[in-house]
Amino acid sequence: MEAGGVADSLLSGACVLFTLGMFSTGLSDLRHMRIARRVDNVQFLPFLTTDVNNLSWLSYGTLKGDWTLIVVNAVGAMLQSLYILVYLHYCPRKQAVLLQTAALLGVLLLGFGYFWLLVPNTEARLQQLGLFCSVFTISMYLSPLADLAKVIQTKSTQRLSFSLTIATLLASASWTLYGFRLRDPYIMVPNLPGILTSFIRLWLFWKYPQAQDRNYQLLQT
Questions:
Q1: What is the pLDDT of residues 128-160, one digit of tens each?
Q2: Where does the UniProt entry say this protein principally localizes (predicted)?
Q3: From its phi and psi, is residue 176 left (phi > 0), alpha (psi between -120 and 50) or beta?
């Protein structure tokens, strides 16, 4: 195998490994819900939006014939769907959660109907679907900025996950390189905000270490 082929295989493997590692951080929430038999402070919306994101990229990967995208997002969609089902099982107010799920899935189905039925050819469909996936992924990476502002305000990183931060950084970096290698801006560009926000989180962990969090909490009590 040529050096270029080996590099592509390693990069593809890194994308799969790091992204599935990022998705698997939700297993701690899954374990907490099963043990406590309630959802407590577990947030539902990230599960739902990530599932929609996975299904969108799965469609893009299928249309492009990219098995790295297909494998990662097929497994990711199954994991997020599992998280959603467990959340629904233990959530006391199921109606609001079901309405959110139905609304977002309805938008997703309308989008798929547009891309597959109304867009005239495969090339145009690939470009428009790639643009949609890119915008959706960028919005997901930028959505936690409000939480980062609260971290700075409270000087506490308790609401942040260090393992998720590292997993996001590695996954975003590998997908950026993968997109650059394929000359696919729809893969490369939306992962750049993931790298940026991960470095911001790492800076916050350095600025407000866990020991300081505990001291801050003691002072508040």
A1: 889 999 998 998 888 777 777 788 888 888 877
A2: membrane
A3: alpha
Q: What's the pTM?
A: 0.84
Instruction: Specify the residue for token string 């590099």.
Output: 7
Q: What angle do CA 16, 58, 115 make, to 5 degrees?
A: 155
Q: What angle do CA 42, 151, 135 make, to 5 degrees?
A: 70
Distance CA 60, CA 42 (A): 30
Q: Which tokens belong to 207?
A: 């600025």
Residue ranges per domain, the chain?
3-220
Q: Provide the residue count of the chain.
A: 221
- Least Cα distance to 76 among 102, 115, 49, 94 occurs for 49
